[in-house]
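INFO  loader      accepted 1 record
INFO  loader      residues=1308
INFO  predictor   begin
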Amino acid sequence: MSAPAISHSEDGLYDILHRGSSAIETAEDRDSKFPDLGNIIGQGYTNDYTMPTLSGWKPFFRREVISIPDIIFEQYNRTECFTQMGLFAEIQRAWITVDNRLFLWDFMSEQNFQAYEELKHTITCIKLVRPRESVFVDDIKYLLVIATTQDMLLLGVSIDSTTRDLSFYHTKMQISIGGIGVNCIEATLDGRIFFSGRQDSNLYEFVYQSEEGWFSKRCAKVNLTASSLGDLLPSFMYQKGDKEFIEQIAIDDSRKLLYTLTNKSSVVCYKLEKKGIQRCVHYSYRSMLSQAQMLNASSVLLDPRFVKLVSIVPIPSYESQQIYAVVITSSGCRLYMRGGRSTSPYFQKADFADPQSAYPSTLQITHIRFPPDQTTDNKFTQRQNATGPFMTNVSQMNGPQNSDVGKPVKPLQCNSLSTMFTPGLFFAFTPSSQNDGDLLFAAAPEFGKIANLQNSGNQLMLCESAMFLPIEGYVQGIICLNPSKQSNELVSQFTTPAPVFAILTNTGVHIIVHRRPLEILMSAIRVGASLTSGVDSQVRTFFESCGRAEGCATCLGLVCGLRDSAARENGQSYFGSSKSTQPELIDIAKKYYIEFGGKTFIDQSRYNSQQDVPSLEFVRLSGRHDGLASCISRLVRWFWGQPVVTREDGKNVFKLNADTSLLLTVQSHLLSLYYFLDISRNHIEGLAGPDHFAGFSNTSDEFALQAEHRALHALITVLKHIIEGISFVILLNDSTFGRFNDIVSTIAPPTQEACMKLTFGKLFTSKEGRVVAKELVNTLVNRQLASGDSIDTVSQILRKKCGSFCSADDVLIYKAIELLWKARDALDADDRASLISNSFDLFKKAARVFSLDDLKDAVKEYKSLGAYDTAVKLILHLAATQDLKDIAFSYMADGQPEDDPRKKIFDFRIACYELVFSIFEEVESLPFEESSKASISVHDILKSSKDELFHTTFYDWYISKGMTERLLDIDSPYIQSYLERNSGSSLSLASLLWQYYAKREMFYMAALVLLELALSAFPISLEQRIEYLTRAKGFGNCHIPSSSRANMNKIMHQVVEYLDVASIQDDLLIAIKNDARLSKEQKDEVVSALDGQILNISEIFNKYADPMDYGEICLSIFQASGYAGIEVVRRWERIIQQTHDQALHLYTGASIVENVSSVLRKLTIRFSSQENVFPVEQIIALAEKYAYEYRDEESKEGWVPDTFTSAGVSHEVVFIVLNQLYDRREKPWQTKEALLYLILDLTHLLKSWCELCIKGGLSSTDRPNFNVSGVLESIEKYKNLLVNDTSSNSQRCKKELQLLENTIREEC
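INFO  predictor   done
INFO  writer      dumping tokens
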């Protein structure tokens, strides 16, 4: 059984969440596009610094000084030969070598003093490195590489996580290095060890492995640069001081590069190959100076006579893709080197965009950063300038400007300890002129200013805040205790502590902390109270420096609790011990977030008020919005885009892909932020509701404020969901409710895959994330139920801590689920029925949050309990509840258009109804007794439903199952409208509709539907259309209400007309099928055109009947159309001639005359009642003429009058027509022969007429009319013509006439 899911009414919420998450991702993208160091510095030189005079604004401060223990001083005083000091950042130890002894001291705890005294020779160099993988046991986390005058060895180091005590392991890995005088040791992160010495210029590698090989030892010394020509020359050939050797080795693990700096200020860059190295670039100091001259950066501070290179610092790829390294001169200048590629084939192979394959073929000085004068800090102490009452912007006199050439300066005298740390933090040490010790010059980029330059579209430049800090004693080493790979401290300050540095001198360890914008703002607020300008001035200057958005983001950083972590890092000495200052700090940060955030406005540079419609794209949101988005983005960015779930390699074990303690820390910060925004919403412009929009005289301002409200509301909504989402994933990871792996592994595999692809951001803000979350909640609840535990505990926690993942409706569903589980085990039928009924009531109340999957699970449970009727009721209720406005039905009624937002809810409801149909089928398949009872219950529910869309879908389902006829038995108010609505698109439903009407004695509607069917575009044969018309004609004779009779008559008139035309079309179709003149292809083409829709009668005649010479069909067309023109006689004449020709060429078993007679008889019978197509006088005349012209011995005498009289034409009519022919004597009846032929036919006609009249058994009404006088007169006329004719035919004719005359006189 599933947990509740997403309601379709929540779509608006996900639009808001998408808007808010997009703002967060935009802020994250903006942070990720912070300009590269190479773009910031550009080409050229700079020598200006911001030198704060107020201590709180300085980029660094000394947090504490830890004195060296007396025991170390005692060892130091016992020095017999050689001593060195330094720091190991990885284990936070200070070290000192005294001849052959090594001492380590945990300076952070000021205890754990340890010594290693097992060496025979004086230690010359020492380095702590990480070992190569799989070489040593897991306990060895580090290696001490110790170089003496004679050998170099590896000493394994492990550290106790509780006591922080060190343990040493003898690795038995040792190489001879006599004669090298090792002075430099460096190692890569993967454990490769490189070293060099003062006695030669070679670079060596300490190669080691776990086991000896056939051709290799466990460890060895490899000379990586032995081919150098200088190494081949005898040592006596060098004059003193001419020997070049390596003073520093520096490694860039991000690019797999190694740099060496020699005592002659030359830089060599090597690429680290899998085995060995390959030289890429050699860059001498004089080449650098030549490049500096091209940058117009000539200065005495670069004079090679007095200045040398003392340090090289690789710039990793995560800090800059363009700048590869920085070299530092003894005068404190920083020379930034950009890597480049040559056109050589080798270097074209590597992908320069890939940091690990970006091996440079050239290094060029692209920017020179000159230092300030040592007197600067004092020289400008009292100076007031444009940067503010507490800042000094220094352009030094020792720069390359022409006006400054020759002016006396006091340059720095930097040593080899000068260095840089990410992100661009510079430390230089020079002898102090005021005390017995060194002076620290420290500079840090002003990221706020740089970001402000970028966001405002101004030219980028390197902005640095710098300071001088006296150091007691002489500096021996410097390390960063918490190194970071974050190159943008605007981002890192929200998730990581401030960088802390340890500087070792011969008297102690100085802990130096870097102030980032977050700490600087705290300082500004703290010191502002003691200044006459006040806090307002200090904070305003901070906002002006970094911009409104960044200023607001920093204020929110203080509000959400980051001040506490900073305070812990910086110590009480910085903030003081009074706790009352913290609430004041928060209140001040809140105040300036609200007041200094600026206003939202419409960008007039892009918006034309007279042409453009106000749109969000024209609105520039305030710094409050952008600052809030940046604050949230920076707090969550470390997990926002990460998958929620990971699977261990090679195992089917799922793990939460985040540290829950870090998630809780972020959640705490976000909660503080949310509470502040929620409480202050009425004071923050744009965050208050619509009531605060009134009163604007300018509609543009009102629109801009509405856009601000919309954006801020979205961010706060996302903020709330992130807080609840963190609670949700922590709950899943809580062992109280089962292991995280057990929960995830229980869900369906597709959901598991979706879960592994789903990021935290998507889980918190997307609909897809909520679907996965509901599946996880479902699994969690089911596990609780399966274990027999109540779900009250887990549901209460879900509702309290993550309400958006578990609402009040969700709790109702959980309760309903629990009732169903109890119903399974209930033995009493009444108890089971009660539990089922109660669960249904709870489901009804929470129906709006149901998903389809949840519904399926609920239905499955009800079916397992035999509660089919309850399942159907729940389905129908859910479908109606999630579409209260019935938009799905309107979508269906509109024809289901594509890309319509209503389609989603329509599909959902259809899917619900399909569950009903599955239940219906299941009920039908049950045993008879059980099926009968369940079927009645289900049918009663279906019939009582008032959901028209359901009824429509139900009827569709009936049809799909081949049960169309059963629709006629349904007594529902929706069946008629269903049939009427769908009859236009479905032939079967249209046929069903007229039957529905006929069954309910709605004969007029039935006839109308049949007529429409006959005329429709459905693929119906002509025969079927004629049937429809015939049925419609039959309904015309049925009893109908008198009010409908007039309409019925009108319909019948149309039916008869169309039926006549359809009959003609059918005759034509038959004729074409039987026409031997046409090929099969021609027949198929014509048949396909005719065996379908009823055509226009003119089209039938002009396109088919007339061109194909179908005479009888043409006559039918004339009959139907009422045509009575000359074409009718011509068509009869053509029929006679056509029949003659066919009989002449085709043997039919009858004579030609018989064939013609048969056709005439048939046509006369068919058309004699219609005068327009059967002009009797003309037709008989045509036949008689044909008979005379084609007379032969086989022709039967009088066949023409016999043909017509046998077809129903009266003897009298035929006599009149023939007699008129005789009287008129028109062609061809002018000759005696023709008249004789005509008299013979007349004689034959009169004989049959007379015989019929005198025939017995006929009544007076059936006896034909016989005009005795007229006939006798005509006989006399014929006899007179034959008086002088002596031919046999004439004599025979006279005889017959005389006999006929006698018979008439006697019998008639």
